[in-house]
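Hi all, long-time lurker, first post. I run a small reading group and we've been trying to get comfortable going from sequence to structure in the token notation. Rather than ask abstract questions, I figured I'd post a concrete chain and ask someone more experienced to write out its structure so we can walk through it together at our next meeting. Sequence below, copied exactly:
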Amino acid sequence: MYNNCFADNDEYKIKIDSYRPLDKDAVKQIQEYYRIGLTYSSNALEGNTLDLAETKVVLEDGLTVSGKPMKDHLETIGHSDAFYELLKLAKSDIITEENIKYLHKLFYKRIDEENAGQYRKKSIIVTGSDVEFPKPEVLQDKMSEFAQSISEMKANLHPVEFAAMLHAKFVNIHPFIDGNGRVARLLMNLALLQSGYNITIIPPVVRADYIRAIQDTNHNNFIPFINFISEMVLESQKEYLRIIERLK
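-- Answer (accepted) --
Happy to help. Here is the structure in token form:
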């Protein structure tokens, strides 16, 4: 059972803000830490077999890990590219449909250039799921409607709730042939960064709880997922605070 931690989220944000602005060296170290950590965790949630140390080797040294699928390496490099774009987009205060498509393109172009940044052209079946995703011919309308709703959601929801809803609503549309979970977590973090929060990582160890909470949103029950994300934000805030305290 996960709880709504908005009050704690607000309290920790104030604590973190008291250390800002950070110096350039600290910012660079923190960005590198989260480039590797978010890439590893987000990929691992989708079954990527590279562990944290192997992810670091791929991204920092440009090496391949023997015995691991090439797709896992390409996902790692692509997610890192999308992470850098995430940092650029965080300087704005809007999220557009083109932003979403470009994040997917950066992540997916080395794997499947034709479908990178393009909505899927055929229906998909997710094993073990009772979810009916929109048919390809209605995806554009669904995504346009979703993009148009972003500013209203942001204006009316707590920043953490907004980030969670952005994630949930996007992943329930499932517009891309692959990489939807990765893009959903990037969007969630983009919303958090634009609201002055830090990167939030969902550890692979809570994958079952994460999936269960997402499945609840398929039936318009968003509370478990919002609470789950709120706790993930809080744990990431605690970690972020420890990091900046060490760097000061």
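A couple of things your group might point at:
The mean pLDDT is 96.
The chain has one domain: 7-118+136-247.
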